[in-house]
Amino acid sequence: MPRNIVALSLLLILPWKTQSYVPPRGAPRHNNNDRNPFITAPIHQRYSQSVPSGSERRFDSLLERSGIDKKVSLQEQEQQQESSDLKLGDDNVQDLVLAASLSYLSLDTNSMKTSPYYDEQRLVVLQQINDSISQTGATIFRVAKETETIVVACRGTTNWKNFGTNLQFQLVEARQELLWKRRNDNIDDNTDVNSVETANSPTDQEPFLVHSGFQKASIELWNVLQPALQQILDSYNGGSKTVPRLVFTGHSLGAATALLCAVQYSMSSSGQRNNNNNNDPKIGVSSIITFGGPRLVNNALAQYWQQHCFRQSCDDDYNDDGNGIPLIINLIHSKDPILQQNQPLWDALGFAVVGREMVCASDQPKTFNNETTLDKSVVAFNFWDHCMYLGTFVGPRLFLLL
């Protein structure tokens, strides 16, 4: 059995038991003001994210088109000139990593609202959805700021069923739910999206392939998530409310299901705007920002989504190099053992990157725009590092039975 498959199996078949999080032995504990030992700085502190200055213009455009606000104070601007680093406000990215973390907690047991990460001034829970078949779930949040944002945060691995889903990594042909051609300007709004011809692969020898387990789980989750999300979005159509941004996020397995659910929404009639009608009430996906997400499709399907699903929702979506700026960003870091151990396996099996991978820090809210690959010299072995992103613990509240 290949070494990488053995490593993945060992990481995923370890016995777990759900309960309130208990830090591992030797983990540093913070003062009493930091109720969660994994918070490396107070949640409400204004952070700065550093990106090399050469990427400033490109990253500004990326943030604007992805729905991530850039807020720079005068003091930060002065510091930027002195240090030649781009200083970015962290509001939206921090909201998303908190939403991804909170999605692991149950709303029914009140564990979510008692979490130190929960703050109604930042995130308001609208609804939590659980699928009994795939045993996956998602939480829908509202972010009230200058522009309202609806966040769909898909939950990552929390049970044995999810572990089994992760291990079904063979590539299979994508189902029709992921392949409806995006509505073009010549199709009437009343056209049934099921009647629209589906796109074919670039060549007959290059079919659209997707991770078997993730595809099945996401379609089952979307069957119960879609009605709840649509009801929330319908409240904005034709009313006086500001049309919101719609963002999908998630961590690990939740990153995979978030992307696939966003695809299903975008391919449906609800997510397809008429580009010739500025008054079209349909709400498109603004961005898909995920954390520690696995690779899940082949190159043919990744390119098809970029051309027919997401990139067309941007206005002249190009940077200085003439390359399309994706709406899909997967934040990764080199200490993550799941990513480090499995990238060689993904490469061997033909898995491709969807959108853009961006390196971030595990222990503090920093992103590095010019870094898109993991540092192979880093020895990644601690499972807890898979759950640490931007200084936030994003994962199941579990402990290992020794």
Automatic annotation (TrEMBL):
InterPro entries linked: Fungal_lipase-type, Sec_MonoDiacylglyc_Lipase
Annotated region (Disordered), positions in chain: 24-56
Domain of life: Eukaryota
Residues of the signal peptide: 1-20
Gene Ontology biological process terms from the UniProt entry: lipid metabolic process
Keywords: Signal
Coiled coil: none
A matching Pfam family: Lipase_3
Ranges for domain Fungal lipase-type: 151-314
Protein name: Lipase class 3
Organism: Nitzschia inconspicua
